[in-house]
């Protein structure tokens, strides 16, 4: 049985953050020490990010703001709203992103409509509400009220993989299943000014984004490139529990993202991939670089650097991750979906009008724990 991601759609909020401008705002905040200011400039400049997107309209300099809650454009001052204020904005801004991205993914899945959806899986670690996004998608898209719903919350940057793995399992259990997966992360709701290195690093990287996919094993004609969901694996590194974490504070959610994370990934990524690649005997003994495409979660520039170097990948194989980071920043669990979307749009290796055999994709993401989630996929052509 072949389980396919038959469509994949991505979206971002309309407010654009230019990295250099964001750097200057953060570096100018009151209360920063000389070291804090230097860290801000170093982290923002080293991030390999040009632009990010935010659901906070106040970050647009050209929009008038009355009673600002997050940022006062008139003074350039970053404000410090409560967790409730941040979560209230999540409810308002995440809901339409969940619904509209899911709608677009379903519209793009030829041969499938709202009446076919059997399961909805939603993902986010940046806000909570109930009835939640899974409920809103069912209501707004006119899905059957009997649709089974699952929400994966607060897992972190790797959470798209458990969602896709669950979708695959649903389809294997019921070959008629059609699973709608939607991921929305509004990381910018939780940024703040601080002298803490972890907080500064997070502020230099994180952004907002959304993605949705339709997964099914139904035997339907393909009209566009798709991804076969071949295998998934989960690995916990033996160290790193204290270097990456996600906690709830009084003024928003608090990220722990230690600078040692890239080194942990460097030391353990080869071992983390072994059980995944062992799933396919055709990959036994092959160099990592012989796998055509690599979807690396760009948690930061140094993470991509470490993975590429350790696995002996080419710079061409790193382009999907680097370009996603450059254009969108780190959107937590939504980011890997953007990387996969980039890979889906790449030219085929032998684009001569004949259908190529297959192009393998190895994907990975990292999160609290330190958790390494990996997936083996195949890009298939209509």
Q: What is the fold's blueprint, element by element?
A:
Blueprint: E1 4-11, E2 15-18, H1 19-27, H2 34-46, E3 51-54, E4 71-72, E5 77-78, H3 83-108, E6 119-124, H4 133-140, E7 148-153, H5 160-173, E8 178-186, H6 197-205, E9 208-216, E10 226-236, E11 244-249, E12 252-257, H7 261-277, E13 293-296, H8 301-311, H9 315-328, H10 335-344, E14 359-367, E15 371-380
Parallel strand pairs: 6-7, 6-8, 13-14
Antiparallel strand pairs: 1-9, 1-10, 2-3, 4-5, 8-9, 10-15, 11-12, 14-15
Helix pairs in contact: 1-2, 2-6, 3-4, 7-8, 9-10
Question: Please, could you describe this protein's structure?
Answer:
This protein is an alpha+beta fold. It has helices spanning 19-27, 34-46, 83-108, 133-140, 160-173, 197-205, 261-277, 301-311, 315-328, 335-344; strands spanning 4-11, 15-18, 51-54, 71-72, 77-78, 119-124, 148-153, 178-186, 208-216, 226-236, 244-249, 252-257, 293-296, 359-367, 371-380. Helix 3 (83-108) crosses helix 4 and helix 7 packs across helix 8.
